[in-house]
Write a structure and sequence with these properties.
about 200 residues; mainly alpha; 2 domains
Length: about 200
């Protein structure tokens, strides 16, 4: 049953990640729920519809989602901590990933596209780098490095390295959201109605 350690290790990290992210969003730490909502909408290049729910309602929904993760995260973490302690990480978790070259090539193109989208002149990472503090910039570096590291670990590494890059990138995103400057109260004065 040692091979069960691979998923157990990933779910162990997921439980810790879900607990941390859920707590940050549910408590709206330093306005994190609003920042995460903004990050999600800007990354998707979506403008909220004027006919949709107001911002306060969308933030409230985000906090409820965070509460759900806060409830789900600790049991998953504890259960899989026991599983990893009993079975170890298993042979399957350290086996080479032997990815086909075309798949690695597509992964490299996807990583380049994601990095460009985040760091282009109008990208979210560029904006946060300009306005964020030291913690935010450190998280940005880790988040950016996790993208090519994911592809590299998929091509040349093992399952543990692959899972680690996912978790590092996710924790870095939480740190980015929690430490980003609060711009939610700044009104938009560039629209037609403000001329």
């Amino acid at each position: 049953m040692g091979d069960d350690g691979g998923p157990g290790l990933f779910l162990l990290g997921w439980g810790l990640l879900a607990s941390g992210m859920g707590l940050v969003l549910a408590t709206d730490f330093r306005g994190a729920a609003g920042r995460f909502l903004d990050f999600h909408e800007r990354a998707g290049r979506r403008t909220p519809s004027p006919l949709g729910p107001p911002r306060k309602v969308r933030i409230k929904r985000m906090r409820w989602i965070g509460a759900a993760f806060t409830v789900a995260g600790p049991p998953v973490f504890v259960f899989n901590a026991v599983s990893v302690a009993e079975h170890g990480i298993g042979a399957g978790a350290t086996a080479p990933l032997d990815a086909p070259a075309p798949v690695v090539g597509v992964g490299c193109l996807a990583a380049a596209f994601i990095t460009w989208t985040l760091w282009c002149p109008t990208g979210q990472s560029r904006r946060l780098w300009t306005t964020g503090g030291r913690l935010c910039r450190t998280a940005l570096v880790l988040h950016t490095a996790a993208v090519p590291a994911f592809v590299a670990s998929f091509a040349f590494g093992n399952l543990v390295a692959l899972q680690s890059t996912v978790l590092i990138g996710a924790f870095a995103q939480i740190a980015m959201v929690a430490s980003a400057p609060d711009t939610t109260e700044a009104p938009d004065t560039t629209g037609p109605g403000h001329r």
